Amino acid sequence: MEKEPSLFLSLLHTDLYGQVFVFPKKSADAHVILNMNSSGPLQTFTVCLRYFTDLTRPYSLFSYATRARDNEILLFKEKPGELRLYVGGEQVTFKVPEGTGTSTGWVHVCASWESATGIAELWVNGSPLPRKGLKKGYSVSNQGVIVLGQEQDSFGGGFDAKQSFTGEIADVYMWDPATPTAVMQAANDDSQLPTSIVGWGNLHYQIKGYVVLKPMLA
């Protein structure tokens, strides 16, 4: 099955090293669409990104929806100290220590899940949190759309401004089947990252609404 033409035909293809997506204000339409380069359903995945925000209300960091399920994969900050991971519509909640960001205020987060055990991991700024479990034996469909900046309540839409992201997002990656441990090890060793199905250095994206691509501030 091919990707939805109206969503994917006009995607740009760019190396965004040193760049960030800036979401300047609360909105019900500002978002970025990403294309995932996967040939089949996912039995495992790891999603990593960096974000910079002063929000205290709920907001979405990474939303992947299909026509059958809006929260196929969702990384959602419900409130300070709490980050939720959804897989196949089911969720687990991780308690995230606040005030653990970098000196610049950026937070690096990696979330992973595997079908064989149902185990989900969340790493924040290189440190793992206690593991959770959900959707053991499930397969994540590859017939979906990734959205940054909004939480999808329907395929490619159903946005709510009260859940929109305001701030900056960068270095978005998604792997199948690399684990956060492998990703962190590669980053610490300054070695080659595993081949990704979404990669900041080779990103297929489309900006919708008031989102601005800018150089990262030092």
From TrEMBL:
The keyword Secreted applies. GO terms for biological process: acute-phase response; innate immune response. It comes from the Eukaryota. The lineage of its organism: Eukaryota, Metazoa, Chordata, Craniata, Vertebrata. SMART domains: PTX. Binds 2 calcium ions per subunit. GO terms for cellular component: extracellular space. Residues 17-218 form the Pentraxin (PTX) domain. Its cofactor is Ca(2+). It is found in: Secreted. CDD domains: PTX (cd00152). This is Pentraxin family member. GO terms for molecular function: complement component C1q complex binding; metal ion binding. InterPro entries: ConA-like_dom_sf, Pentaxin_CS, Pentraxin_domain, PTX_dom. Belongs to the pentraxin family. The keyword Protein transport does not apply. Homopentamer. Pentaxin (or pentraxin) have a discoid arrangement of 5 non-covalently bound subunits. Keywords: Acute phase, Calcium, Disulfide bond, Metal-binding, Secreted, Signal. It comes from Gopherus agassizii (Agassiz's desert tortoise). PROSITE patterns: PTX_1 (PS00289), PTX_2 (PS51828). Pfam families: Pentaxin.
